[in-house]
Design brief:
The protein is an alpha/beta fold and 318 residues long. The chain is built from ten helices and 15 strands. The strands form three sheets. Strands 3, 4, 5, 6, 7, 14 and 15 form a seven-stranded mixed beta sheet that branches. The protein has a six-stranded parallel beta sheet with strand order 10-9-8-11-12-13, with helices on both faces. Strands 1-2 form a two-stranded antiparallel sheet. Helix 4 packs across helix 5 (158-169). The protein is globular.
């Protein structure tokens, strides 16, 4: 099968199209013929030698990626949930070795869900790591309630545009930050109050219940001023460091870092939202597997609206 391997940590020149053996699914896994693959910032960080590279290098060859949508070709002896021919999608083995940049992936059955009939494989692959992150932070970590106020940074990005839609589904009020060019896009998604981070970085007058931080650095610390006493801040990029914790404690704010985990149950929840039309991925561009370097370079701009997806040449309805 064709797969993209990472030869060494570094630039996109370290990504190489190679031929690998089709994996054999374990007793709790299914073999998926992949039609679409989601690309995420963590892919780029890992490629450069950060994020998950340290653990992946112990299991060569390194095949990046975690987000897939495709069709089950075979199921392990203990798998009861899926059968041959099922269209499935999910985030595979995160934060382990997902090996998703490939034509075939052996995936734990409990990391997948049935792909809704009303979305393509590309749309399903887009609604995996980023959407799971948004769901797990808002529902499990923050327990966002109807009427509460969310400040979502980078609201037009991969995680952000899903978080806006999920928060709206949960009945929350939403303030979103992004560049001015994305104001209309975010208002359509459900943002109630827009902040242009380039011209209005201050949060005067805000008293939100939750800050969702996918940026880190100064943004994490400065966001504390926007949170009411007793509110919460969740960073998905390790932004909660000692200075943030100290300042948060002074205001009775709960601040934590969070890393998304593979979950078939949460994927089923997302599948339900997709099926009901409550969640819609925005795909800004599609690339082929052969053009993985261009896909990575697009993510590296830091200006991607929504998601970037790879579609395989023979990908049905991708």
């Amino acid at each position: 099968m064709k797969a993209i391997i990472l030869k060494e940590p570094g630039g996109v020149d370290q990504l190489e199209l190679a031929g690998l053996e089709i994996p054999t699914p374990a007793k709790n896994e299914v073999l998926v013929k992949v039609y679409a693959i989601g690309i995420n910032p963590v892919d780029i960080k890992t490629r450069k030698g950060g994020a998950l590279y340290g653990s992946l290098k112990e299991d060569p060859p390194i095949v990046l990626g975690w987000d897939i949508s495709g069709v089950v070709l075979a199921a392990g002896s203990e798998v009861k949930k899926f059968r041959e021919g099922d269209a499935v999608f999910g985030m595979v083995n995160f934060p382990g070795h997902g090996k998703a940049y490939a034509e075939y992936v052996a995936a734990p059955a409990d990391h997948l869900a049935i792909k809704p009939l009303n979305c393509t494989h590309a749309e399903a692959a887009a609604t995996t790591l980023a959407a799971l992150t948004a769901w797990q932070v808002l529902v499990h970590q923050a327990r966002l309630q109807p009427g509460q106020h969310l400040l979502m940074h980078a609201a037009a990005g991969g995680v952000g545009h899903f978080a806006v839609q999920i928060a709206k589904h949960l009945g929350a009020k939403i303030t979103g930050t992004a560049s001015a060019a994305n104001e209309g896009f975010l208002k359509e998604l459900g943002v109630d109050h827009f902040i242009d981070y380039r011209s209005s970085p201050a949060y005067a007058g805000l008293e939100v219940d939750l800050v969702f931080d996918p940026i880190g650095g100064d943004t994490t610390f400065s966001s504390l001023q926007a949170i009411r006493h007793g509110g919460k801040l969740v960073s998905i990029v390790g932004g909660v460091k000692e200075d943030v914790l100290r300042s948060a404690a002074e205001r009775d704010i709960e601040a934590k870092n969070y890393l998304v985990q593979s979950s078939g149950a949460d994927m089923e929840a997302l599948a339900g939202l997709l099926e009901q039309g409550q969640l819609e991925p925005h795909i800004s561009k599609k690339f082929s597997l052969d053009n993985i370097a261009e896909a990575h370079q697009q993510i590296e701009t830091g200006r991607t609206k929504g998601k970037i997806v790879l579609t395989l040449d023979d990908g049905r309805d991708a």
